[in-house]
């Protein structure tokens, strides 16, 4: 079972200037489909769980599903807790064996965020785990977390100081990106990624990936976005395939759950494969 640390996966990706797809899975079927795509592409992959999904399953059951499905997978995989403002959930996931967490304290003052993130980093280290940090909210609501209001963008100096003093292993900058589908083509501050990587040497995480142009992905990955989050695209693939399958079942009056599951899996795997290839992750497994 090649479960490895987020840091190892992202440090290799940053050095090679390719992106590792980080998919927000929702159940066992989506986990298996993403893993199948990663194996086919010989690519490292990050499986992300939202707080909502963690609470739906419970940490022990969700970790058990993950362990069972990655047991025979022969590409590097890591388990990550996405946007989490709740220290209790973070502690529970770290204790259960999550490999990394995103402590989302962007609503706090920077000084308070820095203090608490430093504590989370220390806690994670005790479990051999790693931490993604954030000081600005990524616009948009995802899994019931976030806001449609844009956050204040901190200066480069403030962001670099936060990264260096907390010891986070990865950082999620706000660059004009947003969760969910974009209502219009986003204007991104790509130079901020380059400046942060040059000043800190750590990989950046690109949030709000669904809906960006291929050229934007390529440019940001080249600049140092080694972790590329994909959530909305997975959910849409899963639910649109479900809708089409159910409509066909209704039309034929033939209700066969395995057919539904097969079409869901195919759609999610196709989506994952497409993003892995786009980000340059194919063939990067070790």
Automatic annotation (TrEMBL):
Domain of life: Bacteria
InterPro entries per UniProt: Aldolase_TIM, Class_II_FBP_aldolase, FBA_II
Binding-site list for dihydroxyacetone phosphate: 180, 208-210, 229-232
Co-factor binding details: Binds 2 Zn(2+) ions per subunit. One is catalytic and the other provides a structural contribution.
Example GO molecular function: aldehyde-lyase activity
SUPFAM superfamilies the UniProt entry points to: Aldolase
Cofactor section: Zn(2+)
Listed Pfam families: F_bP_aldolase
Residues forming the catalytic site: 82
Coiled coil: none
Residues holding Zn(2+) 1: 83, 179, 207
Keyword check for Zinc: yes
PANTHER family linked to this entry: D-TAGATOSE-1,6-BISPHOSPHATE ALDOLASE, D-TAGATOSE-1,6-BISPHOSPHATE ALDOLASE SUBUNIT GATY-RELATED
Protein's recorded name: Fructose-bisphosphate aldolase class II
Native source species: Paractinoplanes brasiliensis
């Amino acid at each position: 079972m090649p479960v490895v640390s987020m840091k190892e996966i992202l440090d290799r990706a940053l050095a090679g200037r390719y992106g590792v797809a980080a998919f927000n899975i929702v159940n066992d079927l989506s986990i298996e489909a993403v893993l199948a795509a990663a194996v086919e592409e010989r690519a490292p992959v990050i499986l992300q769980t939202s707080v909502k999904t963690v609470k739906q399953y419970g940490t022990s059951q969700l970790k058990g599903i993950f362990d069972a499905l990655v047991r025979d997978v022969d590409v590097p995989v890591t388990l990550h807790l996405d946007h989490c403002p709740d220290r209790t959930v973070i502690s529970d996931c770290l204790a259960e064996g999550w490999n990394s967490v995103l402590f989302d304290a962007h609503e706090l003052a920077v000084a308070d965020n820095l203090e608490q993130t430093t504590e989370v980093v220390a806690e994670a280290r005790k479990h051999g785990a790693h931490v993604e940090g954030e000081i600005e909210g990524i616009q948009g609501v995802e899994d019931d977390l976030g806001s449609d209001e844009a956050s204040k963008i901190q200066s480069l100096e403030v962001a670099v100081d936060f990264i260096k003093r907390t010891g986070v292993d990865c950082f999620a900058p706000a660059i004009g990106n947003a969760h969910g589908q974009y209502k219009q083509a986003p204007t991104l501050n790509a130079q901020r990624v380059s400046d942060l990587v040059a000043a800190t040497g750590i990989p950046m995480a690109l949030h709000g990936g669904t809906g960006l142009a291929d050229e934007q992905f390529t440019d940001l990955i080249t600049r140092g976005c080694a972790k590329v989050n994909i959530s909305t695209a997975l959910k849409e693939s899963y639910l649109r395939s479900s809708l089409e399958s159910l409509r066909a079942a209704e039309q034929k009056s033939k209700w066969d759950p395995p057919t539904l599951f097969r079409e869901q899996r195919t759609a999610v795997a196709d989506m994952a494969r497409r993003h892995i290839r786009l980000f340059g992750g194919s063939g990067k497994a070790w």
